[in-house]
C-alpha cells in the first residue's frame, strides 16, 4: 500500500493504472500500463551514504538485460509476476542488497524462460492437433465411400491414402511424446510454431506415402513381409513412418547411396569403345 504522503511525493504513480512493487520515502518502483518497470529516486537519497551508485548501476544493467527477454505473448499474470521480480531486484539494488537483487533477476530469467517453453509446447501441439484432425475428418467419408473410391482410383491408391492418414496420426503421436524433450522457445512467435506444428503432420503423411509404396514394392522393411495382407502392412508402415523422423530420410539416403554406388561402379569406356562409338 502507498500512503497519502507517498502519493503526494510520487505524483507519477497512478494507483488505478499502475502496479506498485515497492515504495518508501526515498524511492518507488512500480509497473506502468504496459507492465514496464519504472522507478523514481529522490536526489537527496542518491547523495546519501545509504545509496551505492556502483551497486545500483550493476543491478539496473542486469535488469535491463533480463527485461529484454520476449514476454509480451505471455498472459498478463505471468508477465506481471516476471516484471515484479525485476522490480523487487531494483529495490534491493537501491538499498545495497546486491546478492538478493542478483538472485531475484536470475529467478526472473528462469521463470520467463519456463513460461516461454510452456507456451511454445501449447502452440506446437495445438497446430499439430488441428492438422491431424483435418486428416481424420477426411478419413470418415473416405472410409464410408471406400467402395466407390476404390472403383474409381483402384485399391492401391485407396490404401496409399489410408497410409497417409495413418502417417499424419503417427506424426501427431511423435509430436506429443517428444514435447518434453524438445528445446522450444516462445520468442520465435506464434506463427512459426503453428507452421512447424502443421508441417510436421503434413510431412508425416508424405513420408507415410513414400514408405507405403516402398513396402508394396518390397524394397523396404522386410519385417512386413510376415504380414499376410500387403495393404495392412502399408498402413502400419505409414503410421511408423509418420511417428519416426528417421525412417523416410534413412530410406532416401539408402536409395541415394545405392545409386551413387552403381554410378561409381560402372567401368570407364576404353579407347577402343570410344573409337568404335565415333565410327558409328
What would your notes on this structure say?
A three-stranded antiparallel β-sheet has the order 1-2-3. It has helices at residues 4-9, 43-46, 53-67, 76-94, 98-144, 146-153, 155-178, 190-217, 230-243, 247-265, 271-279, and strands spanning 19-23, 27-31, 37-41. The chain is elongated and about 90 Å long. The chain is mainly alpha-helical.
Radius of gyration: 32 Å
Going by helix content, strand content and strand pairing, the class is: mainly alpha
Instruction: Work out the helicity level.
Output: 55-70%
Multimer state: single chain
Report the biggest beta sheet as strand number plus sense, adding barrel if it closes.
3 strands, antiparallel
Task: Provide the fold topology.
Elements: H1 4-9, E1 19-23, E2 27-31, E3 37-41, H2 43-46, H3 53-67, H4 76-94, H5 98-144, H6 146-153, H7 155-178, H8 190-217, H9 230-243, H10 247-265, H11 271-279
Antiparallel strand pairs: 1-2, 2-3
Helix pairs in contact: 3-4, 3-5, 4-5, 5-7, 5-8, 6-7, 7-8, 7-9, 8-9, 8-10
Write a concise synopsis of the structure shown.
This protein has 280 residues and is mainly alpha-helical.
Core attributes:
11 helices, 3-stranded antiparallel sheet, elongated, 280 residues
Amino acid at each position: 500500500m502507498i500512503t497519502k504522503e507517498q502519493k503526494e511525493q510520487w505524483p507519477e504513480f497512478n494507483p488505478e493504472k499502475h502496479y506498485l512493487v515497492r515504495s518508501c520515502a526515498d524511492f518507488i518502483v512500480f509497473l506502468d500500463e504496459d507492465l514496464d518497470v519504472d522507478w523514481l529516486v529522490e536526489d537527496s537519497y542518491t547523495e546519501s551514504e545509504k545509496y551505492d551508485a556502483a551497486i545500483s548501476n550493476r543491478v539496473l544493467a542486469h535488469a535491463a538485460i533480463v527485461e529484454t527477454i520476449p514476454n509480451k505473448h505471455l498472459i498478463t499474470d505471468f508477465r506481471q509476476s516476471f516484471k515484479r521480480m525485476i522490480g523487487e531486484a531494483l529495490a534491493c539494488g537501491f538499498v545495497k542488497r546486491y546478492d538478493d537483487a542478483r538472485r531475484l533477476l536470475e529467478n526472473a530469467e528462469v521463470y520467463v524462460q519456463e513460461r516461454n517453453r510452456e507456451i511454445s509446447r501449447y502452440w506446437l501441439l495445438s497446430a499439430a492437433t488441428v492438422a491431424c484432425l483435418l486428416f481424420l475428418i477426411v478419413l470418415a467419408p473416405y472410409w464410408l465411400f471406400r467402395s466407390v473410391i476404390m472403383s474409381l482410383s483402384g485399391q492401391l491408391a485407396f490404401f496409399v491414402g489410408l497410409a497417409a492418414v495413418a502417417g499424419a496420426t503417427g506424426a501427431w503421436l511423435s509430436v506429443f511424446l517428444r514435447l518434453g524433450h524438445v528445446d522450444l522457445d516462445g520468442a520465435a512467435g506464434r506463427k512459426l510454431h503453428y507452421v512447424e506444428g502443421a508441417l510436421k503432420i503434413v510431412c508425416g503423411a508424405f513420408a507415410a506415402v513414400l514408405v507405403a509404396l516402398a513396402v508394396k514394392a518390397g524394397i523396404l522393411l522386410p519385417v512386413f513381409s510376415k504380414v499376410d495382407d500387403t495393404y495392412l502392412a502399408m498402413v502400419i508402415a505409414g503410421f511408423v513412418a509418420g511417428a519416426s523422423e528417421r525412417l523416410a530420410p534413412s530410406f532416401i539416403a539408402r536409395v541415394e547411396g545405392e545409386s551413387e554406388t552403381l554410378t561409381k561402379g560402372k567401368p570407364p569406356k576404353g579407347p577402343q569403345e570410344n573409337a568404335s562409338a565415333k565410327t558409328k
